[in-house]
Structures are given as structure tokens and as C-alpha cells.
Amino acid sequence: MTDLSNAAAIITGASSGIGEATARRLADEGASVVLAARREERLTDLKAEIEENGGTAIVVPTDVTDRDQVQTLIDETLDAFGSVDVLVNNAGIMPLSLMKNTHEDEWEQMVDVNIKGVLHGVGAALPVMMEQGHGHVVNVSSVAGRRLFPGGAVYCGTKHFVTALSEGMRNELAPDHNIRVTSIEPGAVDTELTHTITDGEIVEMLESGHDDMTPLESEDIAEAICYAVTAPERVDVEELLVMPTDQKE
Ligand SMILES: NC(=O)c1ccc[n+]([C@@H]2O[C@H](COP(=O)([O-])OP(=O)(O)OC[C@H]3O[C@@H](n4cnc5c(N)ncnc54)[C@H](OP(=O)(O)O)[C@@H]3O)[C@@H](O)[C@H]2O)c1
Fold first, then answer.
1. Ligand 1 — pocket residues by CB below 6 A?
2. Which of 2, 137, 197, 234 has its CA 20 to 30 A from that of 154?
3. What are the domain boundaries of the chain?
4. Please, how many CA atoms are within 13 Å of residue 118, restricted to the half-sphere of its CB?
5. pLDDT < 70 regions, the chain
6. The pTM of the whole model exceeds 0.70
7. Mapped to the 3 state alphabet, what secondary structure does 25-62 carry?
8. Which of 242, 47, 34 has its CA nearest to residue 128?
9. pLDDT at 98
10. Looking at ligand 1, which atom is closest to the CA of residue 42?
11. For residue 22, what pLDDT is reported?
């Protein structure tokens, strides 16, 4: 098992949902966690909670769409802990909309956060990981990175990108550079992710189409991420698709 007690783990999107739960879980495992997102107050509260429980955390307010801010995130991690052992590229948005309603600003925001934000993290972390001779990049994709659903053409496109990027990264980086790469692909998780949906038709579809499905909790995905990053060094968990038991597709 990989021991995280001397590891620095950066989690983007740590201010809520899956990122917040992952930060707690990795801190419990002994990692020094670096909390990144835009809502600084939430990150500060989480840092206090982690420290109360005996863990170590720092806050680096970061907008992942800004490459300079992501570089600062890596630099501050190095200053604080001397290494970047794990990067969880988790920040993401999902303003679903039907193509015919042409929500172009939201399409662009999804590209900026879900695609370019991930690339900014990868671009800033890789030189450090290559220099160290080790590292682990966890990219949070989605079941939407494998399947399409109504209103999700652009969102699914961004997550297909993340899944493909992860496979390409693993192929190039794991054997030759000892940098493990994992794509995490959750089904429906009970988080704030749907709060950014502005397309009334989608909101109606979500409200009326709700069956009795029990979604995953953020902690379920945090556990999957913890499994991947604590696996023995010889093991690279390339992909994990984690679905609610009663989610149909
Ligand atoms: N919930 C699901 O059903 C589900 C399923 C599959 C995959 N996912 C993926 O899981 C990831 C986490 O989502 P979640 O479900 O936990 O939703 P969430 O609670 O809404 O969390 C999203 C996180 O992303 C951060 N974020 C958004 N824009 C950002 C930006 N420009 N810069 C930095 N951080 C930004 C948010 O923080 P700030 O607003 O404070 O910046 C927040 O912490 C996403 O990539 C999502 O696509 C979720």
C-alpha cells in the first residue's frame, strides 16, 4: 500500500461535494492536503475541520481557468510541503442544456473549467512530478465520459475528453516516468453540481423524470480515489466507473 503520510495531495474543487469529501478522506489517510477552489471561506472552514481532527491542510484559492493561478497552486504546495505527490483534478461544472437552446456561454465555461482547467493542472504538475521521479494524477471524469444523455452533449464531450486524456497520459507517463494516472468516473452523486443548470427544459426534465434512484454520496467517490492513490506502487488503477446500484444508464 502506498503510504500517504509524507505525501502532499492537491484537490481542486475542494469547496464542496466530491472534492471536499476527498480532501477529508486523504487527510484522514495522513496526506497533507492542499485545498483549491474559488470559495475561500468554505476552504478555510474545511482546513479548520481537518486540523481539528489532527490533519494538515493549507488553502490556496484558485480559479482553475486561470493558468497562472494554477501555477501558483503548485508553487505554494512545493513551498509548504516540498513535493507534489498527488493531484486530484476534480473541479468541474455541469450546466446541462439542449443543443437547440444554444447556451453558448455555458458551453464555453464547461470547456474552460472541465477541459482547460484539467490541462492547467496537468501542465503545472508534470514538470515537478517528472523531476521527483514519481506522482499520481487523478482526473475526475464521469459516466458522462462514456455515455451520452439528453442535454449533456457538451458536458459529455468535456468528460469524454478527460477520459481520453487520462488514457493517453497513463500510456505515456506511467511506464517511463513512474507517474500513475487514474480516471474516476462517477454515476449520479448527490452534490451541488446541478445547481448551475439554467435551461428550464432540463430543470423540468430532471424534476419530472426523477425515479426513486438513490444517488451516490460524495464519500463513496472519495473512497474510490483513496483506493487508487493508496494502491501499492506497482498498481496503476487506470479507470474506476462507480455507479449507484439502481441507476439505469
Ligand atoms: N455529482 C455528480 O453526479 C457527478 C458525477 C460524475 C462526475 N462528477 C464530477 O465530479 C466533479 C466534482 O463535482 P461535484 O459533483 O462534487 O459538484 P460540486 O459540489 O458542484 O463541486 C464542484 C467543485 O468545482 C469547483 N469549481 C467550479 N468551477 C471552478 C473554477 N473555475 N475553479 C476552481 N474550482 C472550480 C467548485 O468550487 P468553487 O465554486 O468554490 O470554485 C466546487 O468545489 C466534477 O468534475 C463533476 O463533473 C460529478
1. 12-13, 15-19, 37-39, 62-65, 90-94, 113, 140, 142, 186, 188-189, 191-193
2. 137
3. 8-242
4. 26
5. 210-211
6. yes
7. HHHHCCCEEEEECCCHHHHHHHHHHHHHCCCEEEECCC
8. 34
9. 98
10. 40
11. 99
Residues 42 and 12: their CA atoms lie apart, in Å, by 13
Grid cell of 113 as nine digits: 473549467
Cell triple for residue 15?
469547496
**Edge-to-edge strand order for the sheet containing 239-242?**
56-59, 32-36, 8-12, 86-89, 135-140, 179-186, 239-242
Which residues make Cβ contacts (< 8 Å) with residue 155, sequence separation at least 6?
94, 95, 96, 110, 114, 144
Rounded to 5 degrees, what are φ and ψ at 60?
A: -130, 95
As a three-state string, the secondary structure of 68-85 is HHHHHHHHHHHHHHCCCC
Residue 180: which of 121, 123, 233, 124 has the closest Cα? 233
- pLDDT at position 31 is 98
Residue 103 CA to ligand 1 center (angstroms) comes to 19
Q: Which residues contact 18 (CB under 8 A, 6 or more apart)?
A: 90, 140, 186, 189, 191, 218, 221, 222
- CA nearest neighbour of 161 among 234, 89, 75: 89
- Cβ proximity of 191 and 18 under 8 Å: yes
Q: How many CA atoms lie within 13 A of 44 on its CB side?
A: 4
8-242 under CATH 2.30.130.10, yes or no:
no
- Mention every residue, 6+ apart, whose C-beta is less than 8 A from residue 198: 95, 97, 103, 106
Max CA separation in the chain (angstroms): 52
C-alpha cell of 23?
A: 480532501
